[in-house]
Write a structure and sequence with these properties.
Oligomer: single chain
Shape: globular
CATH superfamily: NADP-dependent oxidoreductase domain
GO molecular function: oxidoreductase activity
CATH class: Alpha Beta
Organism: Jeotgalibacillus campisalis
Pfam families: Aldo_ket_red
Number of domains: 1
Structural class: alpha/beta
CATH topology: TIM Barrel
Distance between the termini: 32 Å
Radius of gyration: 18 Å
InterPro entries: AKR, AKR2_Oxidoreductase, NAD(P)_OxRdtase_dom_sf, NADP_OxRdtase_dom
Order of helices and strands: EEEHHEHEHEHHEHEHEHHHEHH
Protein name: Aldo/keto reductase
Length: about 325
């Protein structure tokens, strides 16, 4: 395993780490036994960082992490997120009292004395502009309940705004071959500020595995079924903002990236890891096989400069105009 510094913090995290939305809920059926087996396998392979949130399965993914990491406080870092258990547009959701409640509830589920990285979970731009939530997080940090804090953002504009707050140590962003806008400005400025970059949705909700046919049907409780057009939350969280059928067609156009790299999924993760500003990538998983498949990206050959330019041209010429929603 390779490890990278999380911004200017004292934390070094595995470059391939994992997100736990899928084992919490909203990605179809789950099996807790398989989830725990996969978590423990990842840890045994050197993964030392997991991202979760209080709304993933209404705290269930936090509870699974507690069970899988019991006794490993000093070996495994956990990042969790807050605000989506309330009304994300209501300033009261970000008050000292409410955030403390969210934090302490997560600590209880995680069975930990502090949270390594506490993140605001995709708040609206107006909340970030008002900024008082950062004072709340400063207080929790001074009390020892959190070590560091960051923000999970939906757009580049939100990310740039977060960089103006001195104690923000990380940004979690949607970034993949279909979603390259952060390369234009955000990544460079984050690096100069000493802010780590955590990449979510690296496979565009599975599109970049190139395993779907145009007529594929997702389970009813899978967000890829009920949020394709942003019906339940930000449209960018599903298929990186692309419509499903368009995404399948675009994925077919770049099958070449998997040549000599095993498959498209490994290649897509490798492309992200080839960006020097990226701290880690956090693909999801449901079982040990998927964990192992994602870890193969570590040994996957990097992209040449010509290949990087080809993918950049592909994004600008064929993809960006089809992404829905602000990004």
């Amino acid at each position: 395993m390779n490890y990278r510094q999380l911004g200017n913090t004292d934390i070094r995290v595995s470059e391939v780490s994992f997100g736990t939305w899928a084992i919490g809920g909203s990605w179809g059926s789950n099996n807790d036994t398989e989830s725990l087996k996969a978590l423990r396998y990842a840890i045994d392979r050197g993964v030392n960082f997991f991202d979760t949130a209080d709304v993933y399965g209404d705290g269930h993914s936090e509870e699974l992490l507690a069970e899988a990491t019991r006794g490993l406080r000093d070996r495994v870092y956990i990042a969790t997120k807050f605000c989506r258990q309330g009304d994300i547009h209501d300033p009261e959701t970000y008050s000292k009292e409410r955030v403390r409640e969210y934090c302490e509830a997560s600590l209880k589920r995680l069975e930990r004395d502090w949270i390594d990285l506490y993140q605001i979970h995709c708040p609206p731009l107006e909340i970030l502009k008002e900024g008082s939530v950062f004072n709340v997080l400063d207080d929790l940090q001074s009390e020892g309940k959190i070590k560091h804090y960051g923000v999970s953002v939906e757009t580049v504009e939100e990310g740039l705004l977060c960089l103006e707050y001195a104690n923000v140590k990380s940004l979690q962003v949607i970034f993949n071959v279909f979603r390259q806008k952060p390369l234009e400005e955000l990544f460079e400025k984050a690096k100069k500020r000493g802010v780590g970059i955590i990449v979510r949705l690296p496979l565009a909700s599975g599109l970049l595995t190139n395993k779907f046919s145009l007529d594929h049907q997702f389970e009813a409780d899978d967000h890829r079924n009920f949020n394709e057009n942003g019906e339940s939350f930000n449209v960018g969280e599903t298929f990186a903002g692309l419509g499903f059928k368009k995404g399948v067609q675009l994925a077919q156009q770049i099958e070449w990236i998997g040549e000599g790299r095993g498959n498209m999924a490994r290649a897509s993760l490798r492309w992200i890891l080839d960006q020097p500003e990226v701290t880690c990538v956090i693909p999801g998983f449901k079982n040990q096989q998927q964990v192992e498949e994602n870890l193969q990206a570590i040994e996957t050959p990097s992209f040449s400069q010509d290949e990087l330019r080809r993918l950049n041209d592909f994004y600008h010429q064929h993809v960006k105009d089809h992404i829905r929603g602000a990004y």
